[in-house]
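Cont'd.
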Amino acid sequence: MSIYLPIAELSVNIFLLLSLGGVVGFLSGMFGLGGGFLMTPILIFMGIPTNVAVATSANQIVASSISGTIGYWRQGLVDFKMGGVLLIGSFFGSILGVWIFSKLVALGQIDTVISILYFSLLTSIGMIMLIESSQVIRDRVRRKTVKRKIHYHNWAHKLPFKIKFYKSKLYISAIPPIIIGFVIGILSATMGIGGTFILIPAMIYFLGMPTSKVIGTSLFQIIFVTALVTLLHATTTFAVDAVLAFFLIISSVIGAQVGVLAANKLRGEEIRALLAIIVLGVATKIALDLLVEPNEIFNISVIRALF
Amino acid sequence: MNLRIFFFIKLLVLAFISSASALVIGSDEEEIYIDANFSGKNLLVFGAFYSDPSQARDYKSDILIEVVGPSEDVVIRKKESFFGFWLNSKSVEFNDVPGFYYLSSTNEITNEFLNENNIGLLNKKDTQLIDWSALNIDWGNIRNEKDKESFYDALIRTKEIEDVYRKVNGKIDIIDGNLFRSYIEIPNTVPVGQYKVNLYLIIDNKISNEYSYNFMVTRVGIEEAIYSFSKNYPLIYGLISLLIAILIGWSGAEVFKRFRKV
């Protein structure tokens, strides 16, 4: 059974959409990732136009991050103040990002830029995850426990505009979180991602936030970044496909909840290693599309039509 | 269902017999509606012709059917290799090209004939015959004739792959010597707007008679409503999309919270 997507202007199989949303949702619930970094390229592989894939992914992430935030908030693991400061940066970042995006669409370079961005991003994430999970597995085999420093003192403590973040037990400058938020905003608008996998390490290593609060706080701020990105895309690139978003949201929300349940029962490292391999596979496919001579070197895009 | 109409047309043709030649046509459709389940449609074009009353009916007369869809502007971009990466580089903008083009004839019609009579844009084998100045094209930095041809060929080729440009022979049935009938495939990829059907009666390689009429292709249904809403009220559309996301995200968390407690 297929369904017609009014903005993407093509028909896709409904079960394919639901399973894509379900799997991506499951992974995001399991690892606390937004899942946009897998959703967008897979949508593009399915033939959905790049701009629609990016804008609609942002809309879908709004739903999955709300769902996730509620779970962490109930456990008291969201630092709203830190989320708010990050958002100041994200607000301006996403406006800049959507502006860059529409310029690239006009130049006809959006597909290439998105491919290169995704290739770099997925390769780095995949490699990091693979190395990290294999180390954990190896350490577990050797029955070694790694001791981690609880508190970092770095440059984030020396800059001006210091704010007290009680929840995270931090007293740091507002500048680093604003810059981090700004970068996340740009990435979110251009790539249709929440940016958790960049945000989480940045919050741990640059801001020194406690790991337990990081996922909830990042999910919290992603709700607002992706909501803003959705609105900006709806009004400037007209690329948000509500029908596509609806099916992805339904399936990803269910998938995410199942993923959260599974995360409590399963051991993470093996699955993380598997996810790393999937991510690297997607990266390889993107690289091949860029490097192999295409069958058709010409492509067409309609710039004015009567509607 | 069309037998009665055929009979009617035949009567009309007989009435026209006093003139040198006659062409009368009918069609069963004035508007085609595209909804989500639209998978293409066969548009029936039928009519009658009578070539020369002073001589016996001959089959040398040909019928040519041309269907031209609404015009659009398109950009053709060419990918080139930069340090191993295939990137879009040169581009050409073609303005006012038909979004749909269909040409069929009872017999093979030569490109020379089409060019002489200003019919057809599918003469891709003879690009040197094309008068570029007649087309509204922004060549950008393309000067070379061969490059121009390659871009024009690419336009025709991509449109053919999308199934919106077609040139067919012999898809017209001649019944009883002077009645004709043809089914024109309208695929689900066609653009919306006004379409023009041009019919030509060709005798001895000359257009003896022609007739034109229009039909509309319109999108209908919930999908069309969503599409036009997103264009006309983008902010409200964006807010509704968000609201749906928020509601489903929230209720998902609530439903599973209860589920987990049980």
